[in-house]
Amino acid sequence: MSETSVREAEIAVEQKHVDIVYARVAEMRAEAEAMRVRGDELAHGARNEAVFEQAAMLFERDVMVRHATQILRTLDAEHEGLVFGRLDSTDGETQYVGRLGVRDGDFENLVTDWRAPAAAAFYQATAEMPMEVIRRRVIRSTGQSVVDIDDDLLMPESRQDSMPVVGEGALMASLTRARGENMRDIVATIQKEQDEAIRAPWRGVTEITGGPGTGKTAVALHRVAYLLYRDRRRMGGTGVLVVGPSPAFTSYISRVLPSMGEDNVELRSLSDLLDGAAATKVDPAPVAAVKGSLRMRRVLKRAIREAPHDAPTELRIVYRGEVLKLEARDLATVRAAVHNGRRLPNQSRVDAAEALLEALWRKADSYEDFPVKRADLITELGERIEFHRFVVMWWQLVTPADVLRTLADRRLLARASGRVLTRTEVDLVADSWAEGSGWSVADIALLDELRVLLGRPPKRRRRADFDPFAPVSVPSGRRQDYDEYSHIVIDEAQDLSPMQWRMVGRRGKYASWTVVGDPVQSSWPDPAEARQAMDAAFGGPRTQRRRFGLRTNYRNSAEIFDLAGKVVRDVATPDQLPHAVRSTGVDPVIRVTTALTDAAFEEATQLLSIVDGTVGIITATSRVDSFRATAEAAGEPRLRVVDGLESKGLEYDAVVLVEPDELVHESSTGPRTLYVALTRATQRLTVVTSNPSWP
Ligand SMILES: Nc1ncnc2c1ncn2[C@@H]1O[C@H](COP(=O)(O)OP(=O)(O)OP(=O)(O)O)[C@@H](O)[C@H]1O
């Protein structure tokens, strides 16, 4: 038989099995649908039953509806490539691997879930360690149709003539596919070193490092799917949080987990980790460096001890014909004493009132010939409306945002900072808040710190809040303190500032962690301080750690990565640079011109005609707005414009990098940012520069 007809015959064999699986899935879907209907009937019935039966019925309904919905969701997510692998072993057994475990009506295995221990050999078997696997086959489908297969022969000596082997490399086929709006899952082609990190135990901290394009993000997300599968009870109930660097990044990765049937994972970026305060800008590097350092915590702690700018500076009250007066100094002493107490400021107003009354009593007691009893004075003054009015103005309940807005005044920030910040630093930071154009990413960590330092004001109870028939699924206010996650994934961990580590650490008090990053791509100026804050976030140095290093760059062509490697030669050791496996024979293009904008769009237009997927223009931050406007006018949906920092974690088929020297100069860790930008393209890279001697 010719090679083509062997391939076609094998595709037909696999199609037969795939058809059986889809028929069975249709049955399962009908069963789940029936279960959901039954659940709704129960709920309807509950409304007509006696009250004491309602709770039990509602509970049963909830469990049923949730279970059925989960099954339907999983079945719906597996629209493409439900079955993607097959193993033929020495014992003559054939096993199919897919996105979901499926058994037939007699409980015979039709497909093994890729996350099950039984599927591990699909990813871990190699020619050196074949694990009894003779042939590993990757099955590629479109919808429910098998379109291609690729085989790896792992034990040639055990292969029988009846076992054909076709194709050359499912991995390469997948790597050369065009890139689109969203990242795709890699379940069919996870590599051995990646699989080890994905399947590591949930406990403690799993650190995954690797250079650009080594699949760190992909691995972290597949690990989430794996942990939810293996430990759904532990992980699913209290939730998994995935934190990425930017909203563009979270949107880019947003489809990966749903495509694996997991959509109850919270994806957040560092700019929207705090509800009600989304960041709309990024500070210039010198400002971000100050705001991110642990020194800011000391500044904030001092700031919240200051009296509000509109607080009264004197308390005068007439008691039984005598004037009792607390002057500014007395008031400052009382304020300091209340701050030194056990409760947080927003929960200390009652303490403040008591301390003021106590001070008034001491004042009265010091007067000669003024015989009053302490208890009488405290009760009588404590009931006076004028006293209450004073307390409300003097001990104000403040929000985190109030505090930062106050510190936009250079004088006030200087006072709060004492010797902690230099004059220049005070001016930089105060001015950034005075601009009033919304919060920056670095501000979010400060607001979160203040949330904890200030405490939540006591809630007034309202009877109407109580609804015995509210759905039982998510108790209202559950995540109010953000600290109930069971697992937290931090992507691009090398860029978190110490203050950001504190913010995520608060959310992971009871969590285990997966932390992925690449020290060489770091844009944070003080890695030692960040490292310390990171250790603290994990619960101290005694927390169990395991480390994995990824060494293969799957994104860039060897030609592109070669150029990128040159720019970080001074800041990276050779073993920190991954190995790019794919050569395209196309070298990066360097175009020298002073007409940067025109040239960049010309090159982008040309690249759009060559590649099927997206083209990214990466420029210095100062040029982004004008480039975006031009791109918008061009109306090309496959074209994106980002700056160096925004490009973190993203990828495009082709990249036009504009004026690399500018990227280097605009950040304190310039060569690293340029390295990030140079490693975003999968196929083509064009550099447009006015510097004839670049690189
Ligand atoms: N085993 C694999 N099979 C197919 N594609 C893969 C595999 N591993 C990684 N990739 C692809 O390589 C690209 C890079 O992966 P990913 O973005 O996860 O890398 P990264 O290490 O997070 O990169 P960076 O640090 O540069 O942002 C993605 O398109 C991903 O789908």
TrEMBL record:
MF (Gene Ontology): helicase activity
PROSITE patterns: UVRD_HELICASE_ATP_BIND
Top-level taxon of origin: Bacteria
Binding locations of ATP: G210, G211, P212, G213, T214, G215, K216, T217
Keyword Disulfide bond part of the UniProt annotation: no
Keywords, comma-separated and alphabetical: ATP-binding, Helicase, Hydrolase, Nucleotide-binding
Cited InterPro entries: DNA_helicase_UvrD/REP (IPR000212), P-loop_NTPase (IPR027417), UvrD-like_ATP-bd (IPR014016), UvrD-like_helicase_C (IPR027785)
Cited Pfam families: UvrD_C_2 (PF13538)
Entry annotated with the keyword Transcription: no
Matches recorded under Gene3D superfamilies: P-loop containing nucleotide triphosphate hydrolases
Chain ranges of the UvrD-like helicase ATP-binding domain: 189-557
PANTHER family attached to this UniProt entry: DNA 3'-5' HELICASE (PTHR11070:SF45), UVRD / RECB / PCRA DNA HELICASE FAMILY MEMBER (PTHR11070)
Name of the protein: DNA helicase IV
Organism listed in the record: Actinokineospora diospyrosa
